[in-house]
Amino acid sequence: MLNKTHILLLMGWCGSVAVNNLHACATCMCGDPTLTLMGTEKPFPNRLRLATDFSYRSENIGLAGINYRDLEESRLNLGLAYALSEHLSVAIRLPLVRKQLREVNLAHSETNSLGDLEISAKVFAYQDRQTRPQHLAGFLGGVRLPTASEQQDHGRPLDVDVQPGAGNWVLHGGVWYGQYHYPWFFYASSVARYALDDGFQEFSEGTAVVTTLLAQYAYSHHWAWQLGLDTRWSQKHQYAGVADPDSGGWIGFLTPGVVINVAEDLLFNLSVQLPVIKQLNGDHEEETTFQIGLVYDF
Quick check: 237 and 202 in contact, CB under 8 A? Predict the structure, then answer.
């Protein structure tokens, strides 16, 4: 298992890859003024992006007075993306996770720790033309590594729900499409996630499919509105081979947001995920998610 030193060294190496390949503004290099966040950008050789974002969410599990639990989660993500060519980019993301779990008996547990490192790749398999393409599509995939340490209290492992990571290897793969027609921008993706093994305390994560539909309109070269629909379907999780009745199902979030170009090659983004489709299994409810972030092109 990778330790924290290995993770930080890996991220530092990725950040140094393009030290001798600095460019003019990213818009000039890709020939497109669309304001794109991490993961939706057009590639050009040696393009290097740094992103950091903070998110907050909460969820309720179980029946009041019986097995009710309230979970709050904050994440500070640090990510790097590097384009090896016009056809392939790679990225890494490392979260700092804070979780608080309150149970029906008033018991309280909390963790603050690095989460699981995720490594991904994006393939640009199609573009409608060589110069300033408007339609791009391809594949994406990656792996989530069990880099987070299992948190304990006086030698006893804390509940799985409050752990900063799951303790298992998870593969993901899917397809994506982007239409870049300034001032409009449309993006869609569908990704499946599959756990290769059990995690902490014999926890088995259910297979999931996550989809994103996004529309963006730029009022100027300095700011743009976004509206998205993010959905997730997943199987029930299992503990020691027994299915958790309050897990899995289908949920959809309406996601309005704004992207602002605050300086050359520096973007600020703010969004909120509002649960509008609620078909989760059992007694399980996810609340609104808030997110704020920055993206910088070197």
Answer: no
Q: Could you tell me which of 65, 61, 71, 124 has the C-alpha nearest to residue 102? A: 71
Average pLDDT over residues 186-202: 96
What would the pLDDT profile of 15-47 be if each residue is shown by its tens digit? Answer: 444 444 444 566 556 667 899 999 999 999 999
d(C-alpha 6, C-alpha 26), whole Å? 30
Q: How many domains does the chain have?
A: 1
- Predicted local distance difference test score (pLDDT) of residue 287: 96
19-22 own/partner pairs: CB under 8 Å, 24+ apart? 21/45, 21/46, 21/48, 22/298
CA distance 66 to 85: 55
Tell me which residue range forms the domain holding 126: 4-297
The predicted model scores a pTM of 0.87
pLDDT at 3: 55
Where residue 293 sits, what CATH number does that domain have?
Answer: 2.40.128.130
